Prior knowledge:
- This protein is an alpha+beta fold.
- It has a domain at 35-122: Immunoglobulin-like (Sandwich).
- Helix content is 18%, strand content 45%.
- It is built from one helix and seven strands.
- It has one helix at 2-24, and strands spanning 35-44, 47-55, 62-69, 74-81, 86-93, 102-109, 117-122.
- The strands form two sheets. Strands 4-3-6-7 form a four-stranded antiparallel beta sheet, with no helix packed on it. Strands 1-2-5 form a three-stranded antiparallel beta sheet, with no helix packed on it.
- A hairpin with a 2-residue loop joins strand 1 and strand 2 (47-55).
- The relative contact order is 0.17.
Amino acid sequence: MPKLRIAFIASLAILGALLVFVVFRPMVTGDKFTEVTRESIIQRGDEWIIQFDLINKEGKDMTYIINWSSGEESWSQEVPVIDGQTFTHIFHVYPETVKEGKVNLTIYREGEPNPFEEHTYYISFDGL
Length: 128
């Protein structure tokens, strides 16, 4: 019987420690990651304009690589962003640069092989 009682008390102690850990541990807010916000897609004249804000919340100055591709053409831009600052990116899409009706966006942190943001925009120039 004493072994069972010891096991019961040990389980209560572990459960109590886990409960204290859950209650008093600060919640993760996600503030330490780069964020893409205020994305806009605007049709104007014979073009589409894609705009977004890139907010650096990494805790240090960062350089980002923004890649656009349409299947036939690709464009790349390196963007240094100071910690806590916002960079507004504007990209113009013209009919002669997009034949298949879609444009791909990929954003990388400098030195990282995998993107942290990827989007595909389906664009139609019918009726322009």
